[in-house]
Amino acid sequence: MTTDSLKAEPIDAASTPPARTVRVNGLDMHVEIVGSGPEVLLLHGFPDSHTVWRKQVPALVAAGFRVVAPDLRGHGETDIPCGGVSSYRIETLVADVVALLDDLGIAKVRLVAHDWGAAIGWAFAIAHPERVERYVAISVGHPTSYARGGLKQKLMGWYIWMFQVRGLAERILRLSDFAILGFFSGYPQELPTWRRLLDRPGRLTAALSYYRANLDLVWGPGGGDVKVPIMGVWSSRDVALVERQMTNSASFCKAGFPYERIDGVGHWISLEAPEKLNPLLIDFLRR
After folding, report:
1. CB of 49 within 8 A of CB of 17?
2. Nearest-5° angle of CA 79, CA 222, CA 156?
3. Domain spanning 5-286: which CATH class is it, in words?
4. Structure pTM?
5. Distance in angstroms (rounded) separating the CA atoms of residues 227 and 253
6. Residue 281: closest CA among 226, 232, 227
7. Which residues contact 207 (CB under 8 A, 6 or more apart)?
8. Which terminal residue of the chain has fewer beta carbons within 10 Å of its beta carbon, N or C?
């Protein structure tokens, strides 16, 4: 292959909010930018795109923020890199965030991130505290805290090991038109969106490459202290993450770590409980 990336196939350009394409580390990155005011960067996780924030963007804009919501590399309408699994190392994902902010002329952001986006957010805040005003980590705690989450956390992360088996993992997830993904996620309501995102050439393997490139994060050490204010948000019905990997993050957060537990809600807090999450975000981001 002679090109440096695989171009994204548009999902539904007619229905997407205002967006632009930014050249980031050799890839065309799709970014939704809405509103005016202090910038809030939203980073999604697996197997989502920026649309997972669709219930937060209007609330944040109404609260006086300028929202920047990219599709991470290989996801949504952002290009798939051609470098294979190694192109998804956490250091590269952090470099994408830096390059995006540089291109947009943003010196410092308020950061909100979920799932894999949260893992990237922690690494970004550790490596570049001068670029982060404050950070809301949703579901996923500090990388060292996650690695030390105990036996229950290891058992709840069983799918990570299944994802390592290239080819087989893709075939299993595609069974019955991705029905297994809807079942094990605990939030089958989002399955039509995931199916639409992942059923395009190369997209499922790109999403799984995050796990394959960063298996070492399961065991640690995972990074040092964080010098910016961080709020942790975890939900009691999370199918993949135990509470202690979030609450124990406090010992690594030297500028404060307010913690919010949302009961009766699963892993996709932004979609399942926006009426609970949005006020927490706005209050913390305004401080």
Report:
1. no
2. 80
3. alpha beta
4. 0.93
5. 6
6. 232
7. 46, 47, 74, 75, 198
8. N
